[in-house]
Amino acid sequence: MGHFNAHVMEFTPDPIQTTNIESAFTNPAKEASLEKGEHLMHNKEQHQQLAYYKKLCSVIKNDDRILLFGRTNAKVKLFSILRADGQCKDIKIEVQQADKMTAPQEHAFVINHSSGRY
Question: How far apart are CA 68 and CA 79, in angstroms?
Answer without folding.
Answer: 8
